[in-house]
Design goal:
17 helices, two-stranded antiparallel ribbon, mainly alpha, two-stranded parallel sheet, 2% strand
């Protein structure tokens, strides 16, 4: 099957969608100081579902005709990608950090462990720019997952480029000899979002894009609500804490910008561009997401990269782009 026919403006729509996605740190980091991670993601999903309902309701008949495997992929994408993955990403960007080194275990046992915030351990540093760059490992993980679940062929060029990407990720994570705080959350985010990308393939076989994207956030809303409820975070003090009540207008504005400008709108623009762009080209233009995110976290939050980290980040993005190019050429052959 041949890929989409590339138009002159298609790649730039991909770039615009990716760049808008990259702006989310501008709103997520300040909101991280207002809400617990899961509560913030809950509000984000409430807004997204409200925006998605007009696209979902006329297409609900598609669900009755879909196979159970398709619905299972959709459920996984909503829970793992939209809900849990986004919570992990939010935790990765938190400025006040958990002292305990057993963060993953504590999170899995009781989501919301980020409420036990405190000083950063001496052998860890905070750097949101690193977190955003490390997320670029996601296509490598999704490619491996596609090989496992759909038996996609791995291109000969995949192995060296993937190994180089992983090596660069290690350099970024270690920094100047101290571990970057939140990298473990970022890697879990990349894994869950990568698996959700693969799951999306199973969903798109039978469901239209508006329904698939809309139902993903609906399922994500239900899953996030359940997580907040299990943690005991449905009280008014938790859903709308004092920090939000002090500046309600600013808080609501940040939430709307996060959910719409950096969430829903990029999805529409990105996929409109992807339908008019070859996969081998799209990989390069997707780099705008990292560039936008790095520009925001570096400029506005002061999270600079050391020279060796900057070099590793550039090589990582290039290696991932080559992974995508090799895989797209294999798929088209």
């Amino acid at each position: 099957m041949s890929g989409p026919r590339e138009t002159r403006y298609g790649p730039w729509l991909v770039a615009l969608g990716a760049a808008l996605w990259g702006t989310e740190s501008a709103w997520r980091i300040p909101l991280d100081q207002v809400f617990d991670a899961d509560v913030m993601v809950l509000w984000e999903h409430v807004i997204l579902v409200a925006c998605a309902l007009p696209f979902i309701l006329p297409r609900l008949g598609e669900l009755r005709r879909a196979r159970w495997q398709t619905l299972a992929w959709l459920g996984f994408s909503g829970v793992a990608g939209s809900a849990v993955g986004t919570i992990f990403f939010t935790l990765a960007l938190k400025r006040e950090k958990i002292v305990s080194f057993d963060r993953i275990a504590s999170f899995l046992s009781a989501i919301g462990a980020d409420s036990a915030a405190g000083a950063v351990p001496r052998d860890e540093v905070v750097n949101a720019t690193v977190i955003n760059v490390v997320l670029n490992i996601q296509p490598v993980l999704s490619t491996v997952a596609a090989w496992l679940f759909f038996r996609d062929r791995l291109a000969r060029g995949f192995y060296p480029w993937a190994a180089l990407a992983v090596a660069c990720g290690v350099v970024l994570a270690i920094g100047d000899g101290r571990v970057i705080y939140g990298v473990e959350y970022a890697l879990l985010t990349a894994l869950l979002w990568g698996l959700s990308t693969v799951a999306g393939r199973g969903v798109m076989v039978e469901l239209s894009l508006p329904l698939a994207a809309g139902m993903r956030v609906v399922i994500g809303l239900v899953a996030t609500f359940a997580i907040v409820a299990v943690r005991g975070g449905l009280s008014m003090d938790a859903l709308w804490p004092a920090a939000a009540a002090v500046a309600p207008g600013k808080t609501v504005t940040w939430l709307l910008l996060l959910a719409i400008l950096s969430g829903g709108l990029p999805l529409v623009v990105y996929f409109a561009g992807l339908a008019r762009t070859r996969a081998s080209t799209a990989g390069y233009f997707e780099m705008l997401q990292t560039l936008a995110a790095a520009a925001i976290t570096w400029t506005f939050f002061g999270d600079a990269l050391a020279p060796h980290q900057l070099a590793a980040g550039v090589v990582l993005i290039g290696a991932v782009a080559m992974v995508q190019r090799a895989q797209s050429q294999t798929a088209e052959s």
